[in-house]
Write a structure and sequence with these properties.
The protein has helices at 9-16, 51-59, 77-85, 94-100; strands at residues 23-27, 38-41, 64-70, 89-92, 106-109, 119-123. The protein is α/β, with parallel strands linked by helices. Strand 3, helix 3 and strand 4 (89-92) form a beta-alpha-beta unit. The protein starts with 8 loop residues before the first helix and ends with a strand.
Length: 127
């Protein structure tokens, strides 16, 4: 058994397969996901697990070059959660963000119910 890090086997496997410039999504429980994109569904009930907790846990194991969030999140609580962990953050209209989800390697669905708590993370390299 692992001592630290991501314990969910599907999530640990997906993160280990990421490369430079790959993208993945941390999402609230309502974000529509195209059928061809893998979903790692961590949602249990509304509010569990929280977006900010999942984002922090995943980003502790990933090198990121920044992220993309919905323009509509600006000034809301979820915007602070995103900018606390990612820089730079690009903002696009929510409808455009939903289209961009189709290009992601996978989506991590949380139990989050806060509006627009979704971010596309772009992977970097540690060297």
């Amino acid at each position: 058994m692992k001592k630290t890090g991501l314990l969910n086997p599907a999530l640990a496997r997906a993160v280990a397969r990421l490369g430079h410039t790959d993208t993945f999504v941390i999402a609230d429980c309502g974000l529509p996901v195209p059928h061809h994109v893998d979903i790692i569904d961590l949602s249990l009930v509304f509010g569990i697990p929280r977006f900010r907790e999942v984002l922090a846990a995943v980003l502790s194991e990933v090198v990121s070059e920044g992220g993309v969030a919905a323009e509509e999140v600006r000034g809301r609580r979820a915007d602070q959660w995103i900018t606390d962990h990612l820089s730079p953050v690009e903002y696009v209209p929510h409808e455009e963000l939903k289209k961009m989800v189709g290009e992601a390697s996978f989506v991590v669905r949380t139990g989050e119910t806060t509006s627009y708590a979704n971010v596309i993370v772009r992977c970097g390299v540690p060297f």
